[in-house]
Amino acid sequence: MIDEKSRAAAHATLTAYLNTQKMRRTPERFAILDKALDMPDHFTIDSLWEALTADNYLVSRATVYSTLKLLCESCIVRRHNFEGRVSCYEKAITPTVNHQHLICTECGKVREVRDPELMRLLESRRYSTFHPGYFAIYAYGICNRCAKRRRKKLP
Ligand SMILES: [Zn+2]
Ligand SMILES: [Zn+2]
Known about the structure:
By secondary structure, this protein is an alpha+beta fold. The chain has six helices and five strands, in the order H-H-H-H-E-E-E-E-H-E-H.
């Protein structure tokens, strides 16, 4: 859940983006934005679509997809392609921003961790002729549970 101030900011960001793109500010787009803001940390197109349907908000999957694309382009939402899993999305607005992802290659579980020291280091980097917007760090490995299961399997 996000606070009302962040929600209002997200609405303003989408409004500004639609204006620059000369696209219509349809109620549908804002309903999808609101639902996306209420979703848990990582969600898929399908889970967002199902949540809208559960609210009796009837909208096509294609519309959810194209609206999510707009939300990504306007930096409200970020898309992740964790290896071996369907694309998932998460809010890119505060306070959920700036975390790293630890992905278990065995069970596919994604854990979020905060590493402010690493983030500060990355944000202090300067690259010639390029202005980084954000950094996405994925660490692939084995989670504790899978490691334990592996040890048990061994003779
Ligand atoms: Zn695992
Ligand atoms: Zn995340």
